[in-house]
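Practice record 12: protein with adenosine-5'-diphosphate.
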Amino acid sequence: MWFLWPIISLAALAGLHLWWRAKFNAQQAQRAAEIEASRRQQQQTSLEAQAQQEVLFDSMLEGLLLLDRSRKIYLVNRAFKNLFGIKTELRGKTIVEALRLHELDELLRRVEAEQQVLEYEFKLPDLNERWLQVNAAVIKNAAGERDGTILVFRDLTRIKQLERTREEFVANVSHELRTPLSLIKGYVETLLDGARDNPEVGERFLKIIERNTNRLDLLIQDLLTISALESGRMKLDLQPVKLRALADKVLTLLHSKAESKNTQLVNELPELTAGADANRLDQVFTNLVDNAIKYGRANGAVVVGGKQLADGKLEVFVRDDGPGIPPEALTRVFERFYRVDKARSRDQGGTGLGLSIVKHIVQAHGGEVRAESEPGKGATFFFTVPAAAGG
Ligand code: ADP
């Protein structure tokens, strides 16, 4: 039997080995399954984190663009897509491929050289005059190497427009103030230089000075009104206002001005009661009738009329039979300092702000203004106001 021992031992060893192999394999499989599960878990967590990140980035007002280290797009948020009007997937493209903006590509190189570029402004080459501001910085990894670039875009268009409007306004105001001021200065100097010794000349010069001082006064009053209206500081005192009676009052006050041009003033307004601020509405009527007399023809007529509209609002018109307004100027006449005929307006003592004030007041009441004209036959200005409650 002794010769069987080695065989038995070998068989036992082989069995042991097989058992151990099986156990080892099972352990390996379990380890692999655990690693796979953990990898899946990590992947899931990273997907969730990415989704959360995207929600966060999409809630930003600024456009966000993340580039990887090979300058390919890694991520853009919703605001970015809206800014550039993009609907397609951008991941993996370069800036030039995605946006065709070489200016941004140059900016990217600058950012890489300088590590960050702040408040870089540029105009988009589209027709709508859109301005963007970019803040950009290089993203680094733990070893301090460039890992990507982040660019944050802000739409500056509105701010630029406001800036330009403000600059234009300041330039206009300065110009408007300078004209009467330089006339006053000139005539005062001439008077001091001896013109005052001739009473007739002196009187004429003083009248010119008076006229220009009044113009300055008017201009400053109009500017203060515009500023109060635009800033919303002017509170309306809404009361029932009888429109026909208000128009009568305004026509009476402007009667002598109309008479000097032999203009007939006609009040055709029916008995309508508006819910409005009487003083402000007085200003609207005065500006419109004053313009109709100023720009209407001599020996002509100015008619004020109106009616209740289907939506319950009241519509008032002021019509003249003068030379009218060219079609391209019909909406522009409501802009500050816009005049169809600059010299004529100034001769008439106009500030160029009257219709802008009219528009602001009417809009503050929730109404609208517009002008219609058949050149050569006259102009009609319309405005709407709310009817008085229950009226
Ligand atoms: P202004 O002080 O110059 O009268 P407004 O704002 O009241 O300023 O009017 C702007 C411009 O609109 C005027 O300069 C004038 O050219 C034009 N305008 C206003 N009303 C009339 C009208 N009834 N007929 C023709 N042009 C008018």
